[in-house]
Specification:
By secondary structure, this protein is of the alpha+beta class. Helices cover about 20% and strands about 25% of the residues. Helix 1 packs across helix 2 (about 70-80) and helix 3 (about 135-145) packs antiparallel against helix 4.
């Protein structure tokens, strides 16, 4: 039978999703756990996409072909018991054999978390930016990236081998206390594209790169985004969408950054008044 899995994982300890020789990966741990839980060694596990080393997932999707009479929920519980604590199968369901986790996906979304203060708890899940940031400039730059563009400057992909054109459906910036949450949704994403988009946004927010200069990066090749690549720690694969899936679910921070003591020297109350009040994430994304 073919099973559709939704998988949550913290990617900090792994060299990405895809199985690699001499490296610990999420798919490698999943494969080991399936064998341990079912005793079956001949099966197919196929993910909706490859996340890079250190990147997390709120709901990665995979399909699993498994010749077993066990009910899907029993498979889920047994495999979860065999998995390390930083990988969890959230849901499992039987699907038609024609379903393919990657080929049937119609869109994907990511969130990236930027911390505006040092945090003892969320360090593996954020990029702490020490500099003051201008969220307004970052939002305007994000809006300029939305649409159908050639993102060759934002990826290591070779346009001679495959198209570097992507339809970026949304790119939003939300404030949640000391956290800035970047949300992007699109038809597909190029290798390192999201981290480089975020890196450019932060450079604009710092005032080191103009909004027009950032938008001009869509005009062709440039090595600037590669030099501004955001760290993997803040990136989460949020959702993988299939035909008929709702696209208007509320956005939430993946891992919250506790609010700082108002009297602390690192509190945002010590920052300019225009940035001292945060706005909660937009509960609904208009499409």
């Amino acid at each position: 039978m073919r099973l559709k899995l939704a998988i949550e994982y913290a990617g900090t300890r792994y060299r990405g999703w895809q199985i690699q020789k001499n490296a610990r990966t999420v798919a490698g741990e999943m494969t080991r756990a399936v064998v341990e839980a079912t005793g079956i060694r001949d099966f197919e596990l196929y993910g909706a996409g490859r996340t890079d080393a250190g990147v997390h997932a709120l709901a990665q999707v995979a399909h699993l072909d498994l010749a077993t009479t066990l009910p899907p929920e029993t498979v889920r519980r047994r495999v979860n018991d065999a998995l390390p604590s930083d990988i969890v199968i959230l849901s499992i369901e039987r699907v038609p054999r024609r379903f393919h986790a990657r080929h049937d996906a119609v869109a994907r979304s990511y969130v990236y978390q930027i911390a505006r203060r040092r945090t003892a708890f969320a360090k593996p899940f954020v990029w702490w930016v020490r500099d003051e940031l201008d969220p307004g400039a970052m939002r305007r730059t994000a809006a300029a990236f939305v649409g159908f563009h050639d993102f060759r400057a934002f990826s290591d992909a070779d346009p001679e081998d495959a198209s570097t054109e992507v339809h970026l459906e949304t790119m939003d910036l939300h404030e949640d206390g000391d956290l800035l949450v970047v949300h992007v949704e699109g038809s597909h994403f190029l290798w390192k594209m999201v981290r480089r988009l975020v890196g450019v946004l932060v450079e604009v927010g710092r005032g080191r790169l103009g909004e027009a200069e950032a938008a001009a990066l869509l005009d062709g090749a440039s090595d600037l985004p590669a030099r501004l690549t955001a760290p993997a720690s803040g990136l989460f694969l949020e959702r993988v969408f299939y035909p008929g899936d709702p696209r208007d679910r509320p956005l939430q921070a993946a891992v919250a950054v506790p609010r700082a003591d108002p009297d602390s020297v690192t509190s945002r109350t010590s920052r300019p008044e225009s940035h001292s009040k945060s706005q909660p994430p937009n509960p609904e994304r208009s499409r």
